[in-house]
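Re: beginner question about structure tokens

> Can someone show what the tokenized structure looks like for a real chain? I only ever see the sequence side.

Sure, here's an example I had lying around. Input first:
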Amino acid sequence: MTHKSVHEWGRVPVGEGGFTRAEANELFAAARAHPCGGAEGTAILTDHHKHLTTRQVVGVLAGKGCSLEILPKVDPDSPGEDTVTVRRRLMGMLDVALGLELSSGGAAQLERQGETLLDILIRLFADRLLDEVRRGLPRRYLLCEDDLPAVRGRMNVVRQFTRHAVRPDRLACRFDSLESDTPLLQIMKATVVFLGKYVRASQTRRRLTELRHLLDEVSDVPPPSLPWERVQLDRSNRRWRNLFDLARLFIKRDWQATHHRQKAEEGITLLFPMNDLFESYVAGLLRRALAGSDIEVTEQGGLKYCLGEWREGEACEGYMFQTRPDILLRRGSEIVTIIDTKWKAISEPFEGKGGVSQADVYQLMAYARIYECSNLMLLYPSAPGGAEGERKSFGMTAGMERLRIAQVDIAASREDAIQSLGRLFADVSIHTQVGTAA
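And the corresponding structure tokens:
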């Protein structure tokens, strides 16, 4: 099994010191098959014969006998950082975006040598599931029907007087039984079995084996038949929510509504478009920064249309070219701020246009008109340890709208990032409790 790690926009050699041509073809085929890859897979990987170049997608790309770990990098031209540091930072972003709750103890020893992003996620799942199973399996009353020698529950009268009319020793019964063979645990067991095929660390393998024994009374259900829609998460089993989300990530192999069907022998592909991941990361931090205020944080909301029928003297009701602003800050029905996140570097120091795209400015001008919002922001990541906060504020011609250019330091601690975003948006609500939720 050949495995390599590389950053976004990085190169991986094909030949000496890298993948063989056959392995490169496997990876490129996996990229073409994935929804993130576009029509030819070039949104994930490009093939230059002597080397492969990664694009703006991070995670793990797997082919038969090989895998490629792609790690984030804000600026392709900046000096590289060590792999462990960048992987830890990516785990921090996934923690916020996917709700992994690493701060509750799962972040310990993430820097183990030789572990990839996939190894860490599998270990995290195994550790947490084992802890929960040892605390006791969640059980649920299920309606059962059986032929018994004594009455249990209620009689099934129809069955009794048709099938057992001449068998008084057999009683058709309907009863509730407290069982652990629930849809939730069927998904957990299927995930344990599935991950056992790909785990590399011996300690994690032992934990998955122990889990299979502890879940022995749960039915084996093949992944295509798993009852995802029948899972009921309530107050009695809400602590399993995080495990359910991780299982869905592994088994369904989806994130941000993407789904990749892959042959079992090829391994597990988990890919995250960095623009989408950065947006969800910022939204997650903002919810913590604005906790206690009257501001609601909405991703990919709004959904208003740009164009519709023109009628003289009437307001237009749009139905063409739907808009999806990255992040909306709402106070009731009022949109107080529109934020567009961009996973790319801006110039240091910020002068003139500062590397801001003209198309991005046009997009926010359209949002200002359609949503009648005067506070707009383009939010970028800063290089590790670089400048953060508001960098520049512009007014829009012939209007009162304000467009702010700002940055958030992705290398900062979560608490510092929350406080930084809280200061950026302190003006939207005087009730904001900056940094109260970590």
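Each token stands for a local structural state, so reading them left to right follows the chain. The CA atoms of residues 64 and 266 lie 4 Å apart.
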